[in-house]
Structure formats: structure tokens, C-alpha cells
Amino acid sequence: MGLDIRIPLGLIFLIIGGLMSVFGFFTRHSAAVYEKSLGINLNLTWGLLMFVFGLIMFLVGRRQKWQDDPVTPRPWERGARPRI
Amino acid sequence: MNLSIIDWLIMLVYFVFVLGIGFALKRYMRTSNDFFLAGRSIPAWVCGLAFISANLGAQEVIGMGASGAKYGIITSHFYWIGAIPAMVFVGIFMMPFYYGSKARSVPEYLRLRFDEKTRAVNAFSFAIMTVLSSGISMYAMALLIQTLGLFHGIIPDAYIFHVSVFLSAIIVLGYIFLGGLTSAIYNEVLQFFLIVAGFAPLVWIGLRNVGGWQGIKRTLPATMTHSWRGMAHASTNTLGVEWVGLAMGLGFVLSFGYWCTDFLVIQRAMAADSEISARRVPLIAAIPKMFFPFLVILPGLIAVTVTSHMAGAGSTPTVLSAPSQSPSALLASTAHEPLDDAHPHGIIPLKTNPVSGQPILDSNGQPVYNYDLAIPVMLLHFFPTGILGLGLTALLASFMSGMAGNVTAFNTVWTYDIYQAYINKRGTDAHYLWMGRMATIGGVALSVGAAYLVTNFNNIMDALQLVFSIINAPLFATFLLGMFWKRTTGHGAFTGLIAGTGAALVHHGLTSPVDAAVGIHGGWIRVIHHYPSDMAQNFWTAIFAFTVNLLVTIAVSLVTTPRPEPELVGLVYSLTPKPVETHLSWYQKPATLAFVVLAMLVILNLVFA
């Protein structure tokens, strides 16, 4: 298949992780939000971890695709996708 | 439940990606091969993750959390002894025949190896079961959304159930219609990572709260924190099964019958890019599978350890945990009383009547606890807004993939094994691709129907569970003999399969669990034996069905003419050249991976013995 799963996987973790860490960053001083999680800012820490995981997946997916690209692209791939 | 905008945003991102993957894959779906088999081009690790995700539907996540809360760490037998050995076996010994025979589905393998009638039995029973399972998944999801009040205040309460059913149906339909099996597999991989990302912090924070594993051990009775203690006799462990029944019934017959023959999971391995990859798929899947008890069973244990109210015992037949063909679903059907009266309930909520809001009492006037809510309640208890959205996304993702797995298996079996075999033999490939898309619509529509059937007749769940177990119980004997004994004939396989199913029925009709009313739980012919629990009865039904199938198949095969040996090359072990592995280093060979997996399994069992 022409789509490497690591690209959407990386992207979804980048976006969700990014959302969570930004939200966590702005709420870092509000004790009320983190009362449930025993005072730990799960959004910021876990969000950042997810962001890093997403970044790695995304970059690996992009690299791998470039390496695996067939020498002569198959007809339906020709011109459809910009060369990386 | 109050969700903020950030929680909704996270869920929205997930659903955009789910459908986006379908759209991105649409242009690669040119032949029926692309649509039903993902073009046989998926790397082993992707198929491996899809292999366990497809099985990790609603019944797993909700049911396992519930059983963890009810029975304790002993539930992990359903993951360890009840899955890993079978996954190793299918990868090492059976995959060369499924993949190498070029069969496009498991029923098609039966036609190649045996004959048309054996295939027909398997194809029809499988098609019906997948549609029903998918409908049950849908029902469970809608019920959970309703119970949690996810859409409360957004749409009128009376419509929440219907909106949930139709929304999930449309999303699953959308991405499978567009991208076929590839789309389902890719979404299962997303779901795998989301479940890990959503549940790992939950377990971490939960363990922190209760003082780690040692804290759980101090609070809960010893039978709940040891997986092998008291297995010598049925009355001394929480499952009510002795070790022979567990090892033979669950560890051998049921687990091998599911993991080695169920097209729902085998289809994921058949999509791999080479035979060697296909053999690695179940082995790769076995590694995360082994550790899943820590993500789905442990939250249940934590939920009962977190002290908020301690009360007398009371256990309840679970409503949410859906039956399926998977052996682990057996847990859901058993309404077995925990052994000790001091069993704490932690934050497990009382079961309430959905209409009046009053707590439901059992026949002794004791309140009934809703163990199915163990994991959802944990999410609400520990997760602040933000990560709560992630936790709910993980939960929804598991429901969706449970449905999608069944729908992709259904459309393939319908198109190749029913439509092409009996209705239109000479269609063009484009026609079968079109048929596959129509079968997807049909499958989803039938699932919605099944979901409403379950809604209207609540005790239909027990009946379905029974039918699934009776149909699946004898199946493995047919495959075992077919693959490893060249003398097995088509007539033998067919008679054996029917006899095995009949034996399961008769055994169920003649035995009954202790304290169960005669009827759906067995004993409807005459009770000649009492089992200590539902689960013990289930395991022994399977053992009987398997044995009868094995003996009848052998007997009939010996008096009928076998097929000539040249026809069976590639289908039977002794006539097929062994897979060439000389180009692989020792550490690349599937056998090495298999030994690593088995060694890890032994270590885990020793640690939690």
C-alpha cells in the first residue's frame, strides 16, 4: 500500500499530544483541575511524551518511504505524490 | 459527566483520522484482492498489532476490567494460557498452509483441503456469528455511552442510544467501504497505540494511589492476587474451575479453536507481505498480548482496591460484556459469586435501574454492583479534563475496531465463500469488488439490526453466547486433522464437525452448573452431572465436542477414500516442503521468536503465581 501507517499514526499523536501539552501548560497552576490525578499534571507530561512518540513515528515513516520508493513508480503513483 | 471543549477536540481528531485513512486509501482499492486481502502487502508488525486489536473489542476491554474487579489477577489466564500457546502454534505450524495455499479465507482453505460441504458449514455459521458479534459490540458501545451520559445535555436523553448506534455504524461503514481491509488494519494499529496511550497513565496513577502492587496485595484477598493459587480444586479459586479443565478446556480446545481457526484474526495474518511475515504476525502479536492484562485487568483490580465504600458481597450477571467467539468472552457469561464475603468493591458503582434510577437489588435484597463500569469509572475518577478525552477516545476506539474486524471478515466470507461459490460464479473482479462494498453496507445494516435485537430481548445475550460456544467448540479438531493427517477425508471432516456440534449440544443438555435454573444454562434434557460453575461447564462442553469431532472424523476417514496425495501438496503438513529458512540468520527465524515468547510467558506466570 502506498500509505505508510506511521505517517497518520505520527500525526495523530503529534496533534493529540500537542493539544494535551498546550492545555496542560496553561492549566499548570490550577490545582482544581489536577485534584483528581493526585496533583500530577498528566496533560503536560503525558502530552509531551505522546508528542515525542508522534514525532519519531512521523519522521521514521517519511524516511522509510523515501528509501522504499520503487525505482520506477507504479502507474498510479506517478505524479500523484510529490517526491520527498 | 461534564466534558470540556478540549476533551471533545481530542475525540474529534480521532474520528477525523479514522475517516481520513479511509479516504487516503480509496485510490489503492482497484481489485478485489486490494479490498479483501489488503493486496497482501502489509508489513508483519502492522498485521501483528492489528491481529490483537481486532480481538480487543468491547468484550475485551469492558469484560476484562469487569472480571479483574470480580475475580482478580486470575483473569489473566485468558490472556496467558488462553491465547499465547495457540498464537505460537498458529504462527509456527498452521500459517504456512493458510498463507501458502493461496486460500483467500479460512472457509476457502476448508474447500481446498476437504470439499464444498465442509466449507459451506463453516462459511455460513461464521458469517452469521460475525454479524451478531458486531451488533453486540454496537449495542455495548451505545449502552456505555448512554450510561456515562456522554451526550447528556447535547441531545435529548431518549435519543442518545439511537444516535450512538447510528453514528458508530456510519463511521465504521465509511472507512471500510472506502479502504477495505487495509483501512481496518490501519485503524486497528491506531487503536492499539491509543489504548496503550490512554490506559498506561491510568494504571500508573491508579497504582500510585493504592500503593502499588504491594498495596493491592495488602487490601485484596490472596485468591485475587495470585493466578495459580487454589487451582488444584474448583472450590478454592474464584473461577470455579480446576486446573485440568482450565488447561484442556481453555488452554487447548477453546483457545486453539479461536486463535487458529477464526477468520477474524487469521485474515490479519493473511494480509502480510510474505509467508515468513505471515508466520511472524501471531508471534509479534503475542508479545503485547502478554502484557495487556496490566492495561485492562489491572484497572479492575485497582478499582476495587481504591477504598470508598466497603459493602457485603453481591455479584451480578454482566449486561455490557458482550459474548463473542473469543474464549475470553466466556467470562462475561458467568455470574459466579466471588468466594469471600469480604470482597471489597472500591469505586465500583451500584447497578441502577435505567428508568427509575433506583439501585437494583438481588434476590437476597443485597445491592448489585455494576462491574462493567470498572474501567469507565476509573477513567472518571483519576483523569482530569484533557487526558480524560484521550481515555474516552481509547475506549471508543476499541469498540469501533471490534465492529470493524467483524465487518471486514463478514464481507470477505460473504463475497468469496457464499456469493462467488453459490450465487454468481462467473463475475468479473470488478463485480466482486462492488459486491464487497455492498456486503459491507449489508453487514453494517445487519449489525444494527442485531444491536436492536439484543436491546429488545435482553436474555438473548446468553443464548447467543451459548450458540457461539457450541459452534466453535469442535472446530479445531477438523483443522488439526486436516493439516496434520493426510488420510483425513472430506466426508470425515463434515461428519465429525456435525457430530462435534451435536455432542456439544447434548453435553450442554445433560449437565448444569450448581445453583443454575434448568434451561438456558443447561440441563434441558436431564441433569446427570453438576459442574461447580458456568465456566467449568463451558470448558468441559468444549473438551467433549473436540473429542467427539476428533474420533468421528478419524473413524469416518478410515472407511472413506482419501484424496490422491498430489492434490494435497501445500495443504497438509507431511506433503508440503518445509519453509526455506536458510537465508535467515538464527535470530530472524520464527522459531526463535516463538521460544522467546514462550519463555516470557513462563516468567510472567511464575511472577504472578
If you had to describe this structure to a student in words, what would you say it looks like?
The complex is a heterodimer of chains A (84) and B (609). Chain A is mainly alpha-helical and 84 residues long. Chain A has one domain (6-66). Helix content of chain A is 57%, strand content 0%. Chain A contains two helices and no strands. Chain A has helices at 6-26, 42-68. In chain A, helix 1 (6-26) packs antiparallel against helix 2. The longest helix of chain A is centred in the middle third of the chain and has 27 residues, at 42-68. The radius of gyration of chain A is 18 Å and the shape is rod-shaped. With 609 residues, chain B is mostly helical. Chain B has helices at residues 5-25, 32-37, 44-55, 58-71, 84-100, 106-113, 116-148, 157-210, 212-219, 222-225, 243-259, 263-270, 275-291, 293-305, 330-333, 374-382, 387-423, 429-456, 460-472, 475-484, 490-510, 534-559, 590-607; strands spanning 511-513, 529-531. A two-stranded parallel sheet of chain B has the order 1-2. The longest helix of chain B has 54 residues, at 157-210. The radius of gyration of chain B is 23 Å and the shape is globular. Mean pLDDT of chain B is 82; it is low at 308-324 and 330-341. Chains A and B meet through helix 1 and helix 2 of A and helix 1, helix 8 and helix 17 of B.
